[in-house]
Design brief:
heterodimer; A: mainly alpha; MetI-like fold; two-stranded antiparallel ribbon; 14 helices; 2% strand; B: alpha/beta; D-Maltodextrin-Binding Protein, domain 2; three-stranded antiparallel beta sheet; 16 helices
Chain lengths: 339, 433
């Protein structure tokens, strides 16, 4: 069976769909470094046999995972690419004329442009705020003298354990006309009439961004916290002895050392935001007048809700893939000056 | 480090295994072998208190004459049913279909035109479709073939709180057979005297617009299926009327469906205009029993085709291409298209109103309803249903609906009407390219 959306096999949990490079490290090492005793035993056999045996062992370990990825990820992606070149009604598809018809169609699609704009707004506004917040929280929680450290860490990470759909529904209720937020503001006499948060473009977008911040800041903080704990604490102490204040320490000691992790979280967040679906679908239902609809939401509508146009939907999914790839590339080039 | 690693690895492995098993395990139930077994049918429907319940009752009725008959109703929410149906249609896996499935009337044209191979038509089923209102049968008729047996009735009703009307010096009669202009005047008066708007609705949805439009026999498409969103006199009239209701404050816009239900259940709004399936929600407020009255809709002014009747929603039973056709057809014919008993059973407990006209003559429909001031409201609604003009949904109904909803949202926030409608027209034309 073919999947129409290769870049979003699991839109409910975007960041986990990309494996952080850091996790791959141990596996490669364990394959590459042979255990000492076996090297001693196999010295009698030919060198070729030894290397072959090791590499075969390596392949044996690799194949199950690689095969699963190939079958469940790469094959549908290829199928979806072929699908994106096809057009037709329902299941009666044929290659489009010209082949890139669905892709040129994207450029004339007002709704696509609108959803692309919406998604980019979320990206540009939300990702920087979230990463900075996560970094600050991580620094605060990395303080060895902080009390109830694990409580704070758990509390801030906990939103990640909440299902995307449930938290979207909770946010929708919070910001309803007679919801908690309006009731509180009215109770404090800050406003006289309930704000129609979800009925106005600006406020509806703010609600989605707030939701995203609540849900994902803790997640990114954990990455920074892990990275900070791998740093040598003496570098911070040295900075302090040299007379650097907390701000200088943060910018000149912590940030440079955290750079790889910042790049990683930036790429993951960009990836996740471009594939945003649940919040758009559940929180605002794309409204008012489609001004909060994300690209993936539009893609879903194209494939399942409207007249099924899977060819075009696949082309859209490839557009998202290309965008993610370009942005990830830029981020890597800009941030990574190691070589 | 190493125990943690082990735990992580174990958890990952367990999760993976669990997922794989889950995938493998879920295959057999969906793989229903409907075509082969002689006396059982599988059905997809979505509402356990409504259509799933009705289906189960239908099975009981059929079992009286066919004791070895068995029915398996699978509950799938409509959105999921549509997604599943599309996936099966796209991949050509018709053998995964049940014998019978329920489909929203508004989605019928689209699905039959996109995936004709997934349906079996009613040509050989022997069902007398003249016993249904033509407006309802038309939803599921494609090229002269019937693909759906109408089930629930989406006839539109106007329901008002009689106690609130009385407070303002009106009765339900003052709101019967009126125009929207008269309605606005009276509703303003009610609002001034009681502080309660008479209508509410979800901002950004076009339910109200579509009901008004259909009440004048108009639609968003012409007979050839071309979108007629621009230069559509009825639509312009409808949007003007709707905008007037909003600006006068007699129509309260809310964000979500739950809030909408809340407006009349919680006493803040004193009336409802919607498909008659809304009665279930109205009756959930026990303290309002005896305080509601039902009548027909206001009609549009300045249009010769305007009526006081319309519809919203409704669904029909389709027989799939994978069905045990003879059994499925006979079952539906003997129950939903031939059993007054069935409709008498499901009406009081679920409010499922029959589209099948002979059932409307049944005694159960003439029973006075205490919640509605002991009026026999169901006889009334069956009458409204028969009078509702037909609506040309076309295959691109959902695209047009979304485009018009967006246009209305823009118009109410200040965009010029002609511009907004032209944009909507362009959007739909683009989708149809």
């Amino acid at each position: 069976m073919s999947t129409i959306a290769p870049t979003k096999p699991n839109p409910t949990d975007p960041p986990t769909s990309s494996t952080p490079p850091g996790r791959r490290e141990p596996r490669r090492r364990s394959v590459a470094t042979p255990p000492g005793d076996s090297r001693h035993r196999t010295r009698r056999s030919t060198v070729l046999g030894l290397e072959r045996r090791h590499s075969l062992t390596g392949w044996a370990f690799l194949i199950p995972a690689a095969a699963l990825i190939a079958i469940l990820n790469f094959w549908p992606m290829i199928e979806a690419f072929i699908l994106s070149l096809e057009t037709g009604k329902g299941a009666r598809l044929h290659l489009s004329e010209p082949l890139w018809l669905n892709y040129t169609r994207l450029f004339n699609d007002d709704l696509f442009r609108l959803t692309l704009g919406n998604t980019l707004i979320y990206l540009v506004v939300q990702v920087p705020i979230m990463l900075v917040l996560a970094l600050i929280l991580a620094m605060l929680l990395n303080d060895p003298h902080l009390r109830f450290k694990s409580f704070w860490r758990t509390a801030i990470f906990l939103p990640c354990a909440v299902s995307l759909v449930s938290y979207s529904l909770v946010f929708r209720t919070l910001f309803a006309n007679d919801g908690f937020v309006n009731d509180t503001l009215m109770g404090l006499h800050l406003i006289n009439e309930p704000i129609q948060c979800l009925a106005n473009t600006g406020t509806a977008r703010v609600v989605i961004i707030l939701g995203l911040l609540w849900r994902w800041t803790g997640y990114n903080m954990v990455f920074y916290l892990a990275a900070l704990q791998n740093l040598d604490y003496s570098t911070f102490e040295a900075a302090r002895i040299d007379g650097a204040g907390p701000v200088k320490t943060f910018f000149h000691v912590a940030i440079p050392q955290l750079k790889p992790m910042i790049v990683l979280t930036a790429i993951m967040s960009t990836n996740g935001t471009l594939q945003l679906f649940d919040e758009s679908w559940n929180l605002t239902a794309g409204g008012p007048a489609n001004t909060t609809m994300s690209m993936s939401h539009y893609l879903y509508n194209l494939a399942f809700f409207n007249n099924p146009n899977v060819g075009y939907a696949s082309a859209l999914s490839y557009a998202i893939l290309i965008l993610v790839a370009i942005l990830a590339l830029i981020q890597m080039k800009v941030a990574d000056r190691r070589d | 480090m190493s125990p943690i690693k082990k735990i992580v690895a174990l958890t990952a492995a367990t999760l993976l295994t669990a997922t794989l098993t889950a995938c493998g395990g879920s295959t057999p139930p969906t793989n229903n072998t409907s075509g082969e077994t002689g006396n059982s049918l599988t059905v997809w429907a979505w509402d356990p208190t409504f259509n799933v319940y009705a289906m189960k009752e239908a099975a009981k009725v059929y079992q009286k004459d066919h004791p070895d008959f068995s029915l398996n109703v699978v509950e799938i929410k409509w959105d999921d049913l549509q997604a599943k149906f599309t996936t099966l249609g796209q991949s050509g896996q018709t053998d995964q279909l049940p014998d019978i499935f329920l489909m929203q009337n508004n989605a019928f044209q689209k699905n039959v035109l996109s995936y004709p191979d997934m349906f079996a038509d009613y040509d050989k089923a022997g069902v007398d479709f003249s016993q249904y209102p033509a407006s309802v049968v038309n939803y599921s008729t494609v090229d002269g073939h019937n693909y759906g047996l109408p089930f629930d009735n989406g006839a539109a009703i106007a329901a008002y709180r009689t106690d609130v009307l009385e407070q303002a010096g009106y009765s339900i009669k003052d709101f019967t057979d009126i125009t929207w202009d008269e309605f606005t005047t009276k509703a303003k008066d009610v609002l001034a005297k009681t502080g309660k708007p008479l209508l509410s609705g979800q901002a950004g949805t076009a339910d109200m617009i579509m009901m008004m439009l259909q009440s004048a026999g108009a639609s968003l498409f012409d007979k050839e299926g071309h979108p007629t969103i621009v230069d559509n006199d009825a639509l312009i009239k409808v949007i003007d009327t709707y905008k007037g209701l909003l600006s006068e404050g007699v129509f309260q816009a809310v964000n979500t469906w739950d809030e909408y239900i809340g407006t009349f259940v919680n006493d803040s709004v004193a009336g409802v205009v919607n498909g008659c399936w809304i009665l279930g929600s109205i009756q959930s407020a026990n303290d309002q029993s005896g305080k509601w009255g039902i009548t027909d809709l206001p009609k549009l002014t300045g249009l010769s085709s305007a009526t006081n009747y319309s519809a919203n929603g409704g669904s029909s039973w389709a027989i799939s291409a994978n069905a045990n056709y003879d059994l499925a057809a006979d079952f539906l014919k003997a129950t939903f298209a031939g059993s007054t008993d069935l409709y008498e059973t499901i009406l009081p407990s679920s409010g499922a109103l029959a589209n099948w006209l002979p059932a409307g003559k049944s005694q159960a429909y003439a029973q006075p309803q205490p919640f509605f001031d002991n009026e026999a409201i169901y006889t009334k609604i069956v009458d409204y249903a028969a009078k509702a003009p037909s609506n040309n949904t076309g295959a691109y109904y959902y695209e047009a609906l979304a485009a018009v909803s967006a246009a209305v949202t823009k118009v109410t926030s200040g965009t010029d009407l002609a511009t907004a409608l032209q944009e909507a027209q362009n959007t739909v034309e683009f989708a149809m390219k």
